[in-house]
């Protein structure tokens, strides 16, 4: 690939994660579907926050977590997303620039508050999310900086962006600029409930080549093709997508390109699985780091699996150790 200033430009919801441990009974009492992501309004956000246990606040959002992982590997990244000029907006901007990510988006001075995602982690490590999108929903075509898009090998878009209509336009605009500059576009399906809402549109993006690289987990892929059979879903995506990386939980991942299919086992997790928040985001980080360096499908899958294994070994959606050091110790970079 021709020289680029950034390995990856992430475009997504600029969200501050509010993470707390919860019992299954709390989820039932609050009417939350375990393991899902639900969109909530500001009133519900305030009520839920009031009933949650002690929480950790950290800047998050799917695409931003991916960029944090990429930076930890030694990659270069930029992010476009909308926050408000409020306390949590300041937290997000500080955190993302502190990890070396270029963040040129100007904060909104009016309108909704900065987005937050309440992440309830149950003892089995599963995470259940309630998201107030707030200011993140204001992201639109005018926020897409063409020079930044053109300067990135891959523009990475999260499926969650498909909820706000203006963000869809921003997404398509960015993809057009990226392809015009000879760059690639990646999409993460984000959540099976998200896929249920926008299945036809996601399939159209993949089949028409708007998306060059697709990331999904097994449940998202099965939702995309409305099947309970992962093999049927893999055969379908092999036909539809130029390049797809599908995570299979404890069974590792499978990477599909052309007629090729590469299976990569899951990297060992140091100790128990503590919190699955960010597993898919960090898998994409490792995969894209290897992909833009032309390291091949196998190594891309291995680095993705390693990054995912690190993040599920602790609470929080961003690495706690240097992924670069970890990858070097395993002989992966």
Protein architecture, described:
The chain is built from twelve helices and 13 strands. With 333 residues, it is of the alpha/beta class. The strands form two sheets. An eight-stranded mixed β-sheet has the order 5-1-8-9-10-11-12-13, with helices on both faces. A hairpin with a 5-residue loop joins strand 6 and strand 7. Helix 3 (62-72) packs across helix 10 (279-292). The two termini are 19 Å apart. The relative contact order is 0.15. The mean pLDDT is 93. This is Adenosine kinase. InterPro entries: Carb_kinase_PfkB-like, PfkB_dom, Ribokinase-like. Residues 59-319 form the Carbohydrate kinase PfkB domain.
What can be said about the biggest beta sheet? 8 strands, mixed
Overall geometry: globular
Counting H and I runs of at least 4 residues, what is the number of helices?
A: 12
User: Rg from C-alpha positions?
Assistant: 18 Å
State the strand order across the main sheet.
Answer: 5-1-8-9-10-11-12-13
| End-to-end separation | 19 Å
Low-pLDDT stretches are none
Structural class: alpha/beta
Order of helices and strands: EEHEHEHEHEEHEHEHEHHEEEHHH
Would you tell me the overall average pLDDT? 93
Q: What is the number of E strands?
A: 13
What percentage of amino acids are in beta strands? 15-25%
Helicity level:
25-40%
Organism: Methylopila capsulata
Protein name: Adenosine kinase
InterPro entries: Carb_kinase_PfkB-like (IPR052700), PfkB_dom (IPR011611), Ribokinase-like (IPR029056)
Pfam family, one: PfkB
């Amino acid at each position: 690939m021709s020289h680029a200033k950034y390995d990856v430009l992430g475009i997504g919801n600029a969200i501050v994660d509010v993470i707390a441990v919860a019992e299954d009974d709390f989820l039932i009492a609050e009417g939350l579907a375990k393991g899902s992501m639900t969109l909530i309004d500001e009133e519900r956000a305030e009520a839920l926050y009031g009933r949650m246990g002690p929480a950790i606040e950290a800047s998050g959002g799917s695409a931003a977590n991916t960029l944090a992982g990429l930076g930890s590997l030694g990659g270069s990244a930029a992010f476009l997303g909308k926050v408000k000029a409020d306390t949590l907006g300041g937290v997000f901007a500080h955190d993302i620039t502190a990890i070396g990510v270029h963040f040129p988006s100007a904060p909104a001075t009016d309108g909704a508050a900065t987005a937050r995602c309440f992440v309830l982690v149950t003892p089995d490590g599963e995470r259940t999310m309630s998201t107030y999108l707030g200011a993140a929903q204001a992201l639109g075509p005018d926020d897409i900086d063409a020079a930044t898009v053109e300067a990135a090998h891959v523009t990475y878009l999260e499926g969650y962006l498909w909820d706000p209509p203006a963000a869809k336009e921003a997404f398509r605009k960015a993809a057009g600029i990226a392809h015009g500059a000879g760059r690639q576009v990646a999409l993460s399906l984000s959540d099976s409930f998200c896929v249920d809402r926008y299945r036809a549109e996601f399939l159209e993006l993949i089949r028409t080549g708007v998306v060059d690289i697709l990331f999904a987990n097994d449940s998202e892929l099965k939702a995309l093709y409305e099947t309970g059979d992962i093999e049927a879903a893999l055969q379908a995506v092999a036909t539809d997508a130029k390049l797809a990386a599908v995570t299979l939980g404890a069974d590792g991942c499978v990477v599909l390109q052309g007629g090729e299919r590469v299976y990569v086992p899951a990297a060992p997790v140091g100790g128990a699985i503590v919190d699955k928040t960010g597993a898919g985001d960090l898998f994409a980080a490792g995969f894209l780091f290897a992909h833009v360096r032309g390291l091949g499908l196998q190594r891309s899958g291995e680095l993705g699996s390693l990054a995912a294994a690190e993040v599920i070994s602790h609470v929080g959606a961003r690495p706690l150790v240097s992924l670069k050091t970890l990858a070097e110790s395993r002989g992966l970079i």
